[in-house]
């Protein structure tokens, strides 16, 4: 049966059913987005990955997969706290910090991406 074969009442019923399905999907999507946003905010505030945050937040007995450790890029060594101005990071320098690569937004950057997020942007 095609739409052109349906009566007006059948079409209205089909439209109502489709609208109900769309509404349910929209609600589910909004819930999922709210949870993902909250977990990301928690992870950012604690200086951890999203998977580490999930491990802390999920109920006991729920399995969360291991957090893969990406290989540092050759030009993005692990972040090391500078001891002074002579070894502070310059604008554009890349570092690997807690499994993510960041680029310094400022010259003379002596803070970690967690301690001063405004000084860094996620590179990868």
Describe the structure in your own words:
The structure is a single chain. With 124 residues, this protein is α+β, with helices and mostly antiparallel strands. It folds into two domains: 3-57; 69-124, Carbohydrate-binding module superfamily 5/12 (Seminal Fluid Protein  PDC-109 (Domain B), Ribbon). It is built from two helices and three strands; from the N terminus they run ααβββ. The longest helix is centred in the first third of the chain and has 39 residues, at 8-46.
Task: Considering the chains and any ligands shown, give keywords for the structure.
38% helix, Seminal Fluid Protein  PDC-109 (Domain B), 2 domains, 124 residues, elongated, 3 strands, 2 helices
Could you give the order of strands across the largest sheet?
A: 1-2-3
Q: Specify the CATH class of the largest domain.
A: Mainly Beta
**CATH level-4 homologous superfamily of the largest domain:** Carbohydrate-binding module superfamily 5/12
By secondary-structure content and strand pairing, the structural class works out as alpha+beta
What is the helix content? 25-40%
CATH architecture of the largest domain: Ribbon
| Shape type | elongated
pLDDT average, as an integer? 88
**Alpha-carbon distance between the termini?**
51 Å
> How is the biggest beta sheet arranged?
3 strands, antiparallel
Taking Cα atoms only, what radius of gyration do you get, to the nearest Å? 24 Å
Strand content: 5-15%
SSE arrangement, N to C: HHEEE
Helical stretch tally: 2
Query: What is the fold-level CATH name, i.e. the topology of the largest domain?
Result: Seminal Fluid Protein  PDC-109 (Domain B)
Let me know the number of strands: 3
The low-confidence runs, each spanning 5 or more residues with pLDDT under 50, are none
- Domain count: 2
């Amino acid at each position: 049966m095609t739409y052109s074969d349906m009566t007006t009442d059948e079409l209205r019923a089909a439209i109502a059913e489709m609208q109900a399905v769309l509404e349910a999907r929209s609600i589910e999507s909004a819930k999922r987005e709210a949870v993902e946003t909250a977990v990301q905010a928690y992870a950012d505030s604690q200086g951890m990955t999203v998977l580490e945050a999930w491990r802390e937040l999920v109920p006991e007995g729920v399995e969360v997969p291991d957090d893969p450790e990406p290989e540092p890029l050759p030009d993005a060594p692990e972040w090391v706290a500078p001891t002074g101005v002579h070894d502070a990071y310059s604008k554009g320098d890349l570092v690997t910090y807690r499994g993510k690569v960041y680029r310094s937004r400022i010259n003379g950057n002596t803070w970690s991406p967690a301690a001063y997020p405004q000084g860094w942007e996620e590179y990868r």
